[in-house]
Amino acid sequence: MIKWAQITVETSEESSGAIENYLFDQKAAGVEIKTDPDKQNQTTLIAYFPVSDLVGARVINLRNFIKKLPSFGLSAENTEVHLRSVPNENWSENWRSAFPPQTIGERIIIAPTWHRVETSNDEVLIRLNPGMAFGTGHHPTTQLSILLLEEVVKSGETVADIGTGSGILAIVAAKLGAQKIYAVDLDKKAVEIAEENCRHNSVEDIIDVKQMDRFSELNQKFNLIVANILTKVILPMIPQAPKYLKSGGHLILSGIMENEIYKVKTELISNKFECLKTRQHNEWFAILARLQK
């Protein structure tokens, strides 16, 4: 019987997204996310890898990555990493049970590819393989982005999704009626996964997934730009955004911590944006802004 290595990371909620992304980059077969209402600002990530000689090195590399998180403005204090082996049949069943279908906002339903889900005519179903890339719909920054997308996406609009990850936000925009979406990510594997998720949702003709750094190869103006990434990436992006937005176009920024919100809003106002709405989930914030006409 094949055994699997279970790596458990107990960390702050603000660092969980970066660690989850790292685990996927290291080719985790699946990542389970757990939160405890009684332990505010604490998240447990449980990742599964085939048992091999690489397991010890993976744990060491993970710990080294966690040590670097403060340089990205993320708290890694009191983060703990644990390793144990589990039988093959246990981890797969446990991991899948951690991803039930979930409803976000008025009508968005996110469901794993293996779940059968009945929806009404008003509901929008998004199917993802949550064992593949960051952006499963369970992280607060993704949920905040989806709530704002639901408010502003209009039929026939063009959208740019910067740092697309699993492609979830681009797919939501397509399902809400956007005519054309460009989903970009610097990571080659994320691009491949986003393309596969687009096919799962039959929106591959609407979404153009590209491997590139932010706006580097985009040569048009959009009705809406959405970016669910770290604030240190968001801040230098804001002065560039007006060049790629139509007059009165919207900008959704998520992945912002409570102590960063003032700095982001100040940068937006300095670049002719009007901050329309701020949404919050625990210490995470997302901003909806509009480029002034």
Present the secondary structure layout.
Blueprint: E1 3-12, H1 13-25, E2 30-35, E3 42-50, H2 55-68, E4 80-87, H3 88-97, E5 102-104, E6 108-112, E7 124-128, H4 140-152, E8 158-162, H5 168-175, E9 180-185, H6 188-200, E10 207-211, E11 222-228, H7 231-237, E12 245-257, H8 261-270, E13 273-281, E14 284-291
Parallel strand pairs: 6-7, 8-9, 8-11, 9-10, 11-12
Antiparallel strand pairs: 1-3, 1-4, 2-3, 5-6, 12-14, 13-14
Percent range for β-strand residues: 25-35%
Overall shape = globular
What is the string of helix and strand elements? EHEEHEHEEEHEHEHEEHEHEE
Tell me roughly what share of residues is in helical segments: 25-40%
Q: Could you give a short account of the major beta sheet? A: 7 strands, mixed
Overall average residue pLDDT? 87
Domain tally: 2
Got a strand count?
A: 14
Count of runs of 4 or more consecutive helical residues: 8
CATH superfamily placement of the largest domain: Vaccinia Virus protein VP39
Q: Order of strands across the biggest sheet?
A: 10-9-8-11-12-14-13
How far apart are the first and last residues' alpha carbons, in Å? Answer: 64 Å
Report the C-alpha radius of gyration, rounded.
19 Å
The class by helix and strand makeup works out as: alpha/beta
CATH fold node name of the largest domain = Rossmann fold
The CATH class of the largest domain is identified as: Alpha Beta
Give the CATH architecture of the largest domain.
Answer: 3-Layer(aba) Sandwich
Low-confidence stretches: none
Assembly status: single chain
